[in-house]
Amino acid sequence: PNCPIIPTVTPRRLNDCTFLGNYPFHPHVSLWDSDEPVSRAELLKGVAGAHGLLCLLSDKIDTEVLDAAGPNLKVISTLSVGFDHMAMDEIKKRGVRVGYTPDVLTDATAELTVALLLATARRLPEGVVEVINGGWSTWKPLWLCGYGLSGSTVGVIGLGRIGMAIARRLKPFGVKKLLYSGRTDKSYAAEVEGEYVPLDTLVSESDFVVVSCALTPDTQGLCNKQFFCKMKNTAVFINTSRGAVVNQEDLYRALSSGQIACAGLDVTTPEPLPTDHPLLTLKNCVVLPHIGSATYSTRGIMAELSANNLLAGLQGTDMPSELKF
């Protein structure tokens, strides 16, 4: 979108990777003008000597990139709420400030999570295929039956901003009980009548398990064989957090063996998921291409916030959203 903050620059695509140098006097902007992610070689070349970097979740900002940028680099602004694509320890060591985009994608991600949950539980993708392929013949008592939210127990792993937004949207569907787990009990959970329980309790009692936690050393691979074995065989598993929270081989085995009923994923490892990945062979697994924040309004707000973070960092002033570490 047009960027009023830098009148001389009009990025034509949201997923541009932009390098700014020589600011604030006569800014020189190097722009990756493509819908495809910037190549590694171009990233290393483009960042050389830059004072600021605007990057995406798909750009790996590691020691090699930081070395290529050199001592001029003062600020990195990422168009994302997540920051596991950046070498935070190295960035901190070099005194580089980091801007990110929390809060603004909360509603969009929560909406997508609910949509994915319903599509998975009610087998909507399968239904569409049956209509297209001529499988829809006549009414049958149990054909394409799925699972409903009314009277169910929903477990949310990680009741942060997005987890709470998901819970608010699910309660009106007639959810009987809402469980949540995480590092601490949350006082604001009372709004959705949320009950704080150990993870094992949540996993074993929930009809729907929704993962909405951050990726940390503690949560990496959290959803593994032992995790899925504790779930009901009628349970629905949804992940819109980070792909690495789930052991996908274990998930495949749980789905293909009937250990759990179905799963919906908006995040995977890697991204994009290879077209020959075993999960894509399963009718009871719905995989989306990481579109949690993909609304026009949300991406526009993210772009503006990223630009404002970058410019504030270059000016040495307070960022609208600075990552404190």
Automatic annotation (TrEMBL):
<dbReference type="InterPro" id="IPR036291">
    <property type="entry name" value="NAD(P)-bd_dom_sf"/>
</dbReference>
<dbReference type="InterPro" id="IPR029753">
    <property type="entry name" value="D-isomer_DH_CS"/>
</dbReference>
<dbReference type="InterPro" id="IPR050223">
    <property type="entry name" value="D-isomer_2-hydroxyacid_DH"/>
</dbReference>
<feature type="domain" description="D-isomer specific 2-hydroxyacid dehydrogenase catalytic">
    <location>
        <begin position="28"/>
        <end position="322"/>
    </location>
</feature>
<dbReference type="GO" id="GO:0005829">
    <property type="term" value="C:cytosol"/>
</dbReference>
<dbReference type="Pfam" id="PF02826">
    <property type="entry name" value="2-Hacid_dh_C"/>
</dbReference>
<dbReference type="GO" id="GO:0030267">
    <property type="term" value="F:glyoxylate reductase (NADPH) activity"/>
</dbReference>
<protein>
    <recommendedName>
        <fullName>Glyoxylate reductase/hydroxypyruvate reductase</fullName>
    </recommendedName>
</protein>
<dbReference type="InterPro" id="IPR006139">
    <property type="entry name" value="D-isomer_2_OHA_DH_cat_dom"/>
</dbReference>
<dbReference type="Pfam" id="PF00389">
    <property type="entry name" value="2-Hacid_dh"/>
</dbReference>
<dbReference type="GO" id="GO:0008465">
    <property type="term" value="F:hydroxypyruvate reductase (NADH) activity"/>
</dbReference>
<keyword id="KW-0560">Oxidoreductase</keyword>
<dbReference type="GO" id="GO:0051287">
    <property type="term" value="F:NAD binding"/>
</dbReference>
<comment type="similarity">
    <text>Belongs to the D-isomer specific 2-hydroxyacid dehydrogenase family.</text>
</comment>
<feature type="domain" description="D-isomer specific 2-hydroxyacid dehydrogenase NAD-binding">
    <location>
        <begin position="114"/>
        <end position="292"/>
    </location>
</feature>
<dbReference type="InterPro" id="IPR006140">
    <property type="entry name" value="D-isomer_DH_NAD-bd"/>
</dbReference>
